[in-house]
Amino acid sequence: xxxxxxxxxxxxxxxxxxxxDSLFKQGQIEAAREFCxxxxxxxxxxxxxxxxxxxxxxxxxxxxxxxxxMCCVYERHRSREELKALLGDxxxxxxxxxxxxDPARMFKALRQTDKPCLAFKILAADRLCDQQxxxxxxxxxxxxxxKPNDAVIVGMYPEYEDQxxxxxxxxxxxxxxxxxxxx
Length: 183
Known about the structure:
This protein is an alpha/beta fold. 48% of the residues lie in helices and 12% in strands.
């Protein structure tokens, strides 16, 4: 697969977040590091994707040779035991749980590396999209907590409004890079 990606002109690749997180929870995160080493051998940019601040902390503290991180700002796949410890109870059914405090925890981890970070699911998989005021507030808060060399990846469903235009406006208004180029 890595040879095919190189032949196709791929600029970079990240170890998949779901797999990264699973390996981390199983104590087998070194398998992700080995993948990153093989990816580096192709001459491409190398990243690690995750939904867990602890993974970013681990990769940074161990000095992995990576160029970037892709990080979901919500830790979506906590176990029953993890949720019980955090909430004192477990939702029924046990599915993705988005907690208000998750973004701050991930942003803290991202600020502890000088590597560029791509933050995704900032709108909590559409859970924060009911009103444009909330969307704008989320973009503003996100950019306040990211480093200047970080960026966001935002999923869109533009059937009822021009979300691409709206989101581009929020990036222009709130991104430090946009403010620096406007001056």
